[in-house]
Amino acid sequence: MQFPKIIQGGMGVGVSNWRLANAVSRLGQLGVVSGTALDQLFVRRLADGDWGGHMRRGLEAFPFPEMAKRIWQEYFVPGGKPATKPYPVAPMHQKRDPRKLVELCVVANFVEVFLAREGHKNPVGINFLEKVQLPHLPSIYGAMLAGVGYVLMGAGIPMHIPGVMDALSAHRRAEYRLSVTGAAAEQDTVMQFDPAEFAGETLPALQRPRFLAIISSNTLASSLLRRANGRVDGFVYESPIAGGHNAPPRGKPQLNAAGEPVYGERDRVNVEELRALGVPFWLAGGYGHAQKVREALDQGAAGVQVGTAFAFSEESGLRADLKQALLRQALEGRGKVFTDPLASPTGFPFKVAQLEGSYSDAAVAAARTRVCDLGYLREAYATEGGKIGYRCAAEPVATYLAKGGKEEETVGRKCLCNALMANIGYSQIRKGEELEPPLVTVGDDLNTVAQFLEPGRTSYRAADVVRLLLSADAEAEAHEPLAASALT
Fold it and tell me: Are 338 and 311 in contact (CB under 8 A)?
């Protein structure tokens, strides 16, 4: 079986958008869309008037027309909303969502994958964060309706996602247990999604995607193969220098002089052990170089996952001004990335590009009024009455404390949900003039993206990344001795 040598990382909210995934998959590698917050992103695209008509084209291809029609009528704004008017906000997810929010989730994921697959026949993947559990079931179903070829998931232990995919591929009811802090053993924490309740009687045939778990240790890899409730098709090993959320260091937490988590030998994967598991694997974190790709292949990897290099390509969803500012830093070799142990409400370390005027700027962070209105990173917790509540360490402190949270858990937390929307040009506007600030996350190898810029150019395309990353591999193949059969 042929596997892609390059997996384009599923980054942020909308950075790995359908345009980027489409461009990479057309080249025979694996383009991946980010599945995080696609429902809210879809709403904002429609509120801006659906530039280019792409969302409408995706809706017209959706297999259940009445559902697509309801979404269009609810959120489309002809000509786009006024610049001073806030974006509409869909309800925050909970254990049991209202029907229209489930429909929005299904449709948004379908459209993103449909557009990424449009015009070619190569596989496309979608990336989810296990910690963002509440939208999992309808999101995966929507992506599968569009024919997604791979589902990738990290930021947690995705033990039960294979079983979810098995059920949904047969249009059976799927279940996923929500992690609820303080829940009693008998408390009902199971989320359910039954395709028949939302899609009617005529259901299209679905193919189960391949499942790739994003891991940070050999122990997790072997555990998933033994205990997952379905087939795990491979692994992506992300080292601590990869962008976005990082797994916390093992052992007693330590910080270096700059205040970043210290990673040691226990946080490094043993490639020989990975190879011995007998399933394909890809290496990620610092592999955005041709020689590193060749090195990974020589170690027995199927290939590499690369994020940062693609994040700055023309096709990515990252705002053009943010791209240019950070590309200038990279060209001058002065780009800085801080692994922030506090920024994410999840408690996972989070990599942040240092950029004046962004949320990484202490003055900007201090000036922002705390608000939580998207809620993807909220923690579910058991209330005194035996119900499920939701809280976020980045929400207003008084609100968090009223929900049983501890004040020390709020220190340094940042609203990643709103910041990541701002990164791609969908900043929420508040009080008619205040815009949510961006917070760019990239890998430690930020400065190496300068290699993709040809002299005199200020931008590069996804094809430039793929070509350069595979150059050492192509050169090695060109110099391999001819097989015996070719000599006779």
Answer: no
Copy the structure tokens of residue 290.
Answer: 């041709």
Kindly list the distances between the CA atom of residue 391 and the CA atoms of 159, 372, 395, 405, 418, in Å, as whole numbers in the listed order.
Answer: 24, 9, 8, 8, 16
In this structure, are residues 325 and 442 in contact, taking their beta carbons and an 8 Å threshold?
no
Structural domain contains residue 340: no
Tell me how far apart the alpha carbons of residues 177 and 259 are, in angstroms, rounded to a whole number: 35
Residue 372 lies in a domain: no
Could you tell me which residues are beta bridge partners of residue 282? Answer: 236, 303
Distances from the Cα of 253 to the Cα of 219, 228, 248, 379, angstroms:
19, 29, 8, 22
- The identity of residue 98, as a single letter, is P
125 is in which domain, residue-wise? Answer: 6-331+446-474
Distance in angstroms (rounded) separating the CA atoms of residues 290 and 6: 11
φ/ψ of 323, rounded to 5, equals: -60, -50
Residues whose CB is less than 8 angstroms from the CB of residue 167 and which lie 6 or more positions away in sequence, other chains included: 173, 174, 175
- Whether 479 is in a domain gets the answer no
Query: For the chain, how many structural domains are there in total?
Result: 1
For residue range 424-460, list pLDDT tens digits in order: 999 999 987 789 999 999 988 899 999 999 988 999 9
pLDDT for 203 equals 82
- Other CB atoms within a 10 A radius of the CB of residue 469 amount to 27
What pLDDT score does 475 carry?
Answer: 61
Nearest to 271 by CA among 213, 228, 221, 223: 221
Q: Rounded CA gap, 343 and 364, in Å? A: 14
Q: Which CATH number is 171's domain given?
A: 3.20.20
CB neighbourhood size of 121 (10 A): 7
* 30 strand-pairing partners: 7
